[in-house]
Amino acid sequence: MADEEEPIPLQPFPDPPPFFKHFTTENLKRLQDLENAASHGAPAANNDASTGSKLSSEQILALPTELRYLIPPQPPADEEPFHVFGETTKSSGTNKFSQDMSYIAEKLGAPPDFVLPDWNYTQLYPSSSVSTSDPRSATANIDRQAYLNRFNRSLIIEYIKLLGIIAVSPTDPGKNEVLKHILNLVCNMHGLINEYRPHQARETLIRIMEEQVARKKREIEGVKGMREKVRGVLDGFGKAVEADVGTQEDGKGSEPVSKGAQGDKRKDVQKEMWDALDEVLGH
User: Fold this and answer.
1) Is the peptide bond before 135 cis (omega within 30 degrees of 0)?
2) Any idea where this protein resides (predicted)?
3) What three-state secondary structure class fits 88?
4) Is the overall model pTM greater than 0.70, yes or no?
5) Cα–Cα distances in Å, from 218 out to 23, 105, 132, 203?
6) Which of 9, 53, 147, 277 is the most exposed place for a label (fewest CB within 10 A)?
7) Whole-number Å distance between alpha carbons of 151 and 123
8) What residues are paired with 82 via a beta bridge?
9) How many CB atoms lie within 10 A of CB 27?
10) For the residues 173-182, what does the mean pLDDT come to?
11) Which residue has the higher pLDDT, 263 or 177?
12) Quick one: 103 exposed, middle or buried, by C-beta within 10 A (0-12, 13-18, 19+)?
């Protein structure tokens, strides 16, 4: 229908915020002049150190809108949450693994299923992020492989225990406790494996850089090979020209060479040149 509004086409990348238009040379100079005037006319104690500006909070609020955009806001505290792309995070970092474990525990105990009520994730190994400032600390350099082997053996034992309970009485409520232990062991193994992610990222970056170096070396070798081919073609051109000149000089002192023979020889030389060019250009 004519009254219906046309759908707005979605853009793959959103437009930048409109206030970027205020970041002009003129506005920056105006703000700098105001800050210089404030630094000479007011004591340093009134400056707003949280934003890094020489203006006080009252002076910042009194600025025009286009100049207030040029002053960065106060950075959030380490434990203060804020949103990035719709997700809540913190400056000190967000423990995504703990959030996932809490989500799993909530879903397992939610009605109407009540799969494993009252299950909570318990970390069974020392955290490597507690003493990262001291690389000699035992918690900063834990033996992850040893803990993974322990959890694997415990997991097998718990699994055998579960089979024994189910073989005797499939409805025995004790199986839920064994299932909780198994799930906790699996989650601990998953958490330990996730701590290898930085190492995996470094190794992946090293492999990519090595591949780039190898590719550049192959390109250099290809350029060197092409240089030799071009030199060979140029040497062939020079020899062909010298041979043509020598033939003309010989024709002057002896019996004249027929024009047809000279033309055929010239065509043969030109054909060799074009063949060499095709080889160099890769046609």
Assistant:
1) no
2) Nucleus
3) strand
4) no
5) 46, 54, 42, 23
6) 9
7) 12
8) 89
9) 16
10) 92
11) 177
12) exposed
* CA–CA distance, 137 with 146 (Å, rounded to integer): 17
For 274, the enclosing helix (H) or strand (E) is helix 259-281
In angstroms, what CA-CA distances link 103 with 100, 119, 159, 218?
A: 5, 11, 24, 50
For residue 200 the two structure tokens come to 């995996």
H-run or E-run covering 82: strand 82-84
Residues facing residue 87 across a β-bridge: 84
The owner of tokens 């718990």 is 158
Q: Which helix (H) or strand (E) holds 83?
A: strand 82-84
| pLDDT of 46 higher than 70 | no
Give the pair of three-digit tokens for residue 177.
């406790």
- Which of these, 50, 38, 111, lies nearest to 75 by C-alpha position? 50
Q: 143 exposed, middle or buried (CB, 10 Å; 0-12, 13-18, 19+)? A: exposed
Q: For the chain, how long is the longest CA-to-CA vector?
A: 118
DSSP state, residue 54? S
d(CA 107, CA 198): 29
Find residue 88's DSSP bridge partners.
83
Q: What angle do CA 244, 247, 249 make, to 5 degrees?
A: 110
Binned at pLDDT 50, 70 and 90, residue 133 comes out as very low
- Of 81, 75, 87, 70, nearest to 29 by C-alpha is 70
DSSP state of 22: G
* H-state helical runs in 109-194: 144-168, 174-194
